[in-house]
Amino acid sequence: MTDSEQLVQYPIPPVDAIEPPPEWEQLRQQCPVAHVQLPSGDQAALLTRYDDVRQVLSDARFTRTAEGSARVSPEGTGVFDRRRPGVPQSGDGHQRWRRMITKWFTAKRMAALRPSIEAMADQLVDGMVAGGQPADLKAALGFPLPVWVICELLGVPASDRERFSYWSDTFLNLSRYTAADMEAAHSEFAAYLTGHIEAKRAEPGTDLLSDLITGTDSAGEKLSDAALVSTGMGLLIAGHETTTNMIGKMLAMLLADRARWERLVADPGLVRTAVEEALRYDANAGFGMIRYVSEELELSEGVLPAGTTAVCSMASANRDERIFADAADMDLTRSPNVHLAFGAGPHSCIGQSLARTELQVVLEVLLRRLPTLALAVPSAELPLVEGLLVGGLREVRVIW
User: Fold this and answer.
1) In terms of DSSP H, where are the helices of the chain?
2) Is 62 in contact with 294 (CB distance < 8 Å)?
């Protein structure tokens, strides 16, 4: 970066449900390490090329936050600005914590959970069909399914699902809620989880939290209450809002071009590669991932000085023509597909196997149940959610 560069305002506003901002390609070609200003007014380095993004995300030295890192939101709250008490952010401690969580997201566990997710999806489609058309697919299916699943993993009763959805939205929204709203939501959720953990400690179940409460990591250490609360909060954010939005965006992408949907109806065996391609193709993936560069780092074109806050745009990296042939086209058979939708390296998304399973099941159920599914409005008219760090569509109106 140089002082003469124009300061880019970030996040870059999306175009519509399908098309990426033209600035992505311009930055990849002309300024792959761009000087940007965040909503807080703080400055950061925006990375848009695949190799640079992967390099930074894969470097175990760099964590999400550190003393002196740029704030995302004006008040310094928001999901990226808040530390997670009790959870090591780097090093061996972080990896021990991850191993305790990742055993809940193995292929074997996902296979065992899949019939339950399919039954949930079928139930929700029943409700959507009974409600008549046009219907909002996001509200009827995309929103409730992931929160049902994450609540089941945490051992949370169905009656509390609505509270979880509000907390999740508040943590991830930069414009809709005030700093006071965010602080209140954080306090409410922390208090809820503290009580929930106490109840699980008294009567452990077969859920993830009960396992974490009673188990130890590879060094024989138990998680503190603060770490348990932080873990529950992290799983909510990763397991609910992101997948909710991806369900809506995936269906919008596939239905925007009728040939894509009809190809899947004719060959449901393409579901897995279609899901991976939707993850790569996503033009509304949200903010990206932050890394605090604690040591000087040389990239493909330029150097990040120590003390730089880097914003890694996985969505732009996933459209990098240097890596993906015909990157601007949605290829339902693309394989291999080395997209970075779930990040990379030691901080990649823990629950990515669950997200993939949910997306695959949703697509399989809709192809089976509603093969004539179609958008009720042109894709360019689908309303975007404003201010949400993970990106998304406010609603996805469909007919069948």
Assistant:
1) 22-30, 50-58, 78-81, 91-102, 107-130, 137, 144-154, 161-172, 179-202, 208-214, 225-236, 242-256, 258-266, 271-281, 314-317, 352-369
2) yes
Residues 6+ apart with CB under 8 A from 187: none
- Tell me how many degrees the CA angle 117-279-11 measures, rounded to the nearest 5: 120
Q: What is the pLDDT of residue 5?
A: 56
**Phi and psi angles of residue 69, each rounded to the nearest 5 degrees, phi first:** -75, 155
Q: Is the pLDDT of residue 387 over 80?
A: no
Q: Is the distance from CB of 100 to CB of 217 less than 8 angstroms?
A: yes
* pLDDT over 60 at 361, yes or no: yes
- Res 81: pLDDT: 44
> 62 by DSSP, 3-state: which?
coil
Residue 228 has φ and ψ, to the nearest 5°, of -65, -45
Residue with tokens 């391609």, as numbered in its chain:
277
Phi first, then psi, for residue 291 (nearest 5°) are -135, 135
* Residues 81, 351: Cα–Cα separation, whole Å: 21
The rounded mean pLDDT for the chain is: 90
Per-residue pLDDT of 180-218, as tens digits, reads 888 888 899 999 999 999 999 999 999 999 999 999 988
- Which tokens is 336 given? 């291999």
Q: By C-alpha distance, which of 231, 248, 324, 260 is closest to 285?
A: 248
Cβ-based neighbours of 51, under 8 Å, separated by 6 or more:
299, 300, 320, 322, 323
pLDDT at 269 over 70: yes
Contact 320, 341 (CB under 8 A): no
In angstroms, the CA 187 to CA 185 distance is 5
Give the pTM.
Answer: 0.89
- The model's confidence at residue 83, banded by pLDDT at 50, 70 and 90, is low
- How much is the average pLDDT of 120-141? 97
Q: For residue 1, what pLDDT is reported?
A: 44
Is the preceding peptide bond at 134 cis, omega within 30 degrees of 0? yes
Whether 175 and 387 have beta carbons less than 8 Å apart is answered as yes
Alpha-carbon span 310 to 293, nearest angstrom: 7
Separation CA 129–CA 212 (nearest Å): 39
Do residues 9 and 36 lie in contact, with contact meaning Cβ atoms separated by under 8 Å? yes
**pLDDT > 70: what percent of the chain?**
94
CA atoms within 13 A on the CB side of 85: 6
